[in-house]
Structures are given as structure tokens and as C-alpha cells.
């Protein structure tokens, strides 16, 4: 069903604001909605938290919703154009912890001291 909302303003053009705006633009329910992004700086904003290329994408969240969203996102980054041209590079992940911690006992990728 098409939304009755005529105008939507997304404040902030970091990864959250841009993702929200993209999702809205791709949703047929908002096909007639005028969507505007307002940001304090140019895009990309070099001072925002989501700027630069050094971020970890991981699925080991305690929240099942977060974990499944992260797994879904990883698939998109791996298998769509989004991850091309070096936008997504999997360099691996090494977790270090005590043997008594959950990482040390249950995660096969971890190394314990
Ligand atoms: C050092 C560091 C390392 C991190 N590492 C990771 C990691 O490895 N993995 C991970 O998943 N997460 C990581 N995070 C967290 C992640 O970067 C943030 O959760 C995410 O970037 C937040 O995105 P955002 O769009 O909410 O904010 P931002 O990316 O900060 O974007 C905010 C946007 O809002 C604009 N803005 C600000 N104030 C206003 C205003 N008053 N009016 C209009 N526009 C405004 C800014 O110009 C900017 O465009 C890290 C964060 C930091 C700081």
C-alpha cells in the first residue's frame, strides 16, 4: 500500500542516514514521497564516524536481530556491486581472549593464551 506521507527528511548523511534514505527510495510504498537528506557537511563527511575504510563487519552480536542483519548485510557486500572496486575487502578477523571467556571456549577462530 502506498504511503500517504508526502515529504520525508533524513537528517545526517552518514551510513545510517544514507542507508535509510536508500531503503526508502527503493520501497514502492514511498514512490510518491519526496525524500530529502540534510547533512551538516558534504558527502562523504570526513569527520563523521562512518568515514574511512577501516571498519569491522561482524555477526557475533548478542542480539539475534543484529546478528541476522549483519549476516544479511555481509552477503550483499560479498555478492553485489556494493563490494566491488575495493569497497569491501575481507582481511580476516582474529579474536584474542582468556580461555574462560565465551570467545576462548566456543569460537573456533579464537586464540587463547
Ligand atoms: C573510531 C570508531 C571506530 C568504529 N569502528 C567500527 C567498526 O569497526 N565496525 C562498526 O560496525 N562500527 C564501528 N564504529 C561505529 C560506526 O562507525 C557508527 O556506529 C556509525 O558510523 C554511525 O553512523 P551514523 O550514520 O549514525 O553517524 P555518522 O557516520 O557520524 O554520520 C553522521 C552524519 O550526520 C551529519 N550531522 C551531524 N550533526 C548534524 C546536524 N546537527 N545536522 C545535520 N547533519 C548532521 C554529519 O555531517 C554526518 O554526515 C566505529 C566508530 C568510531 C568512532
UniProtKB/TrEMBL annotation:
Superkingdom field: Eukaryota
Biological classification of the source: Eukaryota, Fungi, Dikarya, Ascomycota, Pezizomycotina
Family listed: Belongs to the MSOX/MTOX family.
Organism this protein belongs to: Periconia macrospinosa
Pfam families hit by this protein: DAO
Required co-factors: FAD
GO molecular function: flavin adenine dinucleotide binding; L-pipecolate oxidase activity; proline dehydrogenase activity; sarcosine oxidase activity
Protein name (Swiss-Prot/TrEMBL): FAD dependent oxidoreductase domain-containing protein
Coiled coil: none
Domain FAD dependent oxidoreductase residue range list: 8-97
Signal peptide: 1-21
Keyword terms of this UniProt record: FAD, Flavoprotein, Oxidoreductase, Signal
